[in-house]
Amino acid sequence: MGTVSRASGAPLYDQLIKIFESKMSSGEWAVGERLPSERELCEVFSVSRITVRRAIAEAAARGLVERVHGVGNFVASPKMRQSLRDVTSFGVSLAADGLLASTQILDERTEISDFSIAGVLGVPVASSVQYLQIRGLGGDVPLVIYDSFLPADTGAAVLAEARRLVDTGTAFTTVDIHRNSLTDPLVRIEQTFEAVVADEATAALLQVDPGWPVFRIESVLRAETRVLEYRIARYRGDRYKFAIERSAL
User: Which long-range contacts (CB under 8 A, 24 or more apart) does 162-167 make?
Assistant: First the structure.
């Protein structure tokens, strides 16, 4: 299973992680396979349980290992690569990684806009806006939560289409709905990215532990002459990586 060396100068836990990576990349440890127990790893590599636990914790933080409370540690699925250059539908992007996508509506309601939401959407303060929360899954695993705020007229149409797509079993996000609009098609998205950790509410929705790494992405979706939506997305950090190609000229 590989060896660790106290003479190498590299931390023992880091050497263990490299061995984990080697076993996973070679296929010796397959996706979904349970890792040897902490005791077995201690015996095989002649290291302490503290070292093993740190290696597993670091491997989980890097997305290599999925920890299931009370069950064990498992080889995680490879991270999905999301391009920042192209806008790809939710179902298509997951299908490229061999996953069956699905979407659930978790919450829908009319809210009164505060100064912040009204300013982004370009509507009067205290006007009615549509709130929509949806969850995207790959297989049975929750991957992302979207919290959307929309002007009342746009929101009514988006909500109706979202309900229809759920009823037909079609995976979607609101971006997919806006792109297919015949009246106000989506033409531009402004986004900011932030690395955060999951609070208790987010952790419950994503079915992870509080403190789990999360990508938080704020988006303003625009048609030609108006704002269509303000959206906050929370992606599981252990399942996603984002990529962009830039010119060096």
Answer: 162/105, 162/132, 162/134, 163/105, 165/103, 166/103, 166/104, 166/105
Mean of the per-residue pLDDT values for the chain?
87
Domain count across the chain: 2
Band (182; pLDDT cuts 50, 70, 90)? confident
Q: How far is CA 78 from the centre of its chain?
A: 13
Q: Domain with 39 in it: what CATH number? A: 1.10.10.10
Q: Which helix (H) or strand (E) holds 73?
A: strand 72-75
Q: Which residue in the block uniquely carries the two structure tokens 């349980």?
A: 49
Verify that 137 and 106 share a domain, yes or no: yes
Claim: this prediction has a pTM higher than 0.85: no
The H or E element containing residue 175 is: helix 174-179
If asked whether residues 68 and 86 sit together in one domain, one would say no
DSSP string across 88-144? --HHHHHHTTT--EEEEEEEEEEEE--HHHHHHHT--TT-EEEEEEEEEEETTEEEE
Q: Which of 75, 91, 112 is the last residue of a domain?
A: 75
Burial of 170: CB neighbours in 10 Å, binned 0-12, 13-18, 19+: middle
**Does residue 205 come out as left (phi exceeding 0), alpha (psi in the -120 to 50 range) or beta?**
alpha
